[in-house]
Give the backbone structure.
Amino acid sequence: MNIVKTIKEVRENVKQWRKEGLSVGLVPTMGYLHEGHESLIKRAVAENDRVVVSVFVNPMQFGPTEDLASYPRDIDADSRLCEAAGASLIFHPEPEEMYEEGFCSFVDMTGLTNALCGLSRPVHFRGVCTVVNKLFNIVMPDKAYFGEKDAQQLAVVKRMVKDLNMDIEIVGCPIIREADGLAKSSRNTYLSPESRKQAVILSKSIFMAKQMVLDGERDAAKVKKAMVDMINTMPLADIDYVEIVDVNTMKNIDKIEGNILCAIAVNIGGEARLIDNFMLSLSNA
């Protein structure tokens, strides 16, 4: 497995693979990889002849008060995980390689990005769409793999691919959790021991809400209130949002039916903003 830092090197490798008739998968990441990323890489390895993992902390998707400078980085550990998982190539560029001087072209989206994380992080999805579009153009993969923990991001990328007629299959992969239920996240490392203990309330509220819906509750307001009440039992939990939306439009719904996304974002102890969710298809309910 090689680690390359330039777009030219990625294209040279992919060009050779294509000459050999090989399929190519892409796993875009910001690094500091954990078991969730590992599951994406292993899925990609199982479904493609060669797999590129991008490791790039994308400055464009961070707001001015967010954690760009402190976002955890460990390319040595990342490379070990990627190699063990079967990746063929790591693309680890510097920001200047991705955004050369004078860069002024962006990929923007309305609608899907105006809710949930897009409300509290207004520049986030513009940055995500732009960097993912660039990665797709650089690697030209057959398939690209994204975690369902970032459900809104997954929906946004799928819509971008559809709207812009990209010949790429987007594959969503299940949330990987800690033993106590907390969704795996690179930002979990920010948490103090007490905050980490209280953070499990996110997954507990998600599991409770999902069970309420499976048991027949269809009033979104009742489910959201139960979640808010549970999360608020933890003094370090500061809710950003608790929402139930149509997964295709990201618009709030009153009655739980069809394809739904229940998503939460909670700041824990002022140390980390964490997200979690569940999705259900109730079309035949």
